[in-house]
Specification:
single chain; mainly alpha
């Protein structure tokens, strides 16, 4: 003896087993056909870091070259500033030596002024050296050079704000902003993160 169908939602006994009947409230759909599997990975050009879609640059992009040239120009402007301070320090020293009407306090003030000028010259020399090192590393440097360039440009903008009020500080201020903008662009990032074989 057979037991009655235990599944009250299944097909009634005695009817042929065909394609499944649609459920109430669901639209009728065609049965799904087997699909082709997807390709394992796009076969396009590989970008920096193995990412697809961004082509690997074989030549330094224009904005990266512009940032490099601006770093060279900033270093050159700084060297000119060092030369100007050297001339001013020489004139200051000769003027203080020729004028003998000062007491001991005035001599110490001249010495403090000379020391401050020498300190500024040392800072400018360090600034020019960092700009040159960063600019020279653009062709073979990694992403750290790009980040260092952005930090250098930011510090340069902050230091040149007081001098931007005067006319002679505006070129350094503008070039520093442009160095930040060009070094932060995506094509510059692609250049500095390119694979090196």
């Amino acid at each position: 003896m057979s037991y009655p169908n235990q599944n009250p939602y299944g097909p009634p006994q005695g009817q042929p087993q065909g394609p499944p009947q649609p459920q109430y409230g669901y639209p009728q759909q065609q049965p799904m056909q087997p699909q082709q599997p997807y390709a394992p990975f796009p076969a396009g050009p590989m970008g920096p870091g193995g990412m697809p879609g961004i082509p690997v640059p074989h030549q330094m992009p224009g904005s990266t070259k512009a940032a490099r040239v601006m770093l060279f120009v900033l270093a050159g402007i700084t060297v000119l500033g060092i030369i100007g301070l050297t001339v001013a320090l020489n004139q200051f020293s000769s003027a203080s030596a020729q004028y003998n009407g000062f007491s001991g306090d005035a001599d110490s003030m001249f010495a403090i002024g000379k020391g401050a000028m020498v300190f500024v010259m040392i800072l400018q020399a360090a600034y020019a050296a960092v700009a040159l090192v960063l600019a020279l590393q653009f062709s073979k440097g990694a992403n750290g050079i790009r980040i260092g360039t952005i930090i250098f440009g930011s510090v340069s903008v902050l230091c040149s704000i007081p001098f931007a009020i005067a006319i002679y500080g505006i070129p350094s201020f503008v070039l520093s902003i442009l160095v930040i903008v060009f070094a932060a662009k995506q094509e510059s990032q692609a250049w500095f993160t390119r694979p090196r074989y």
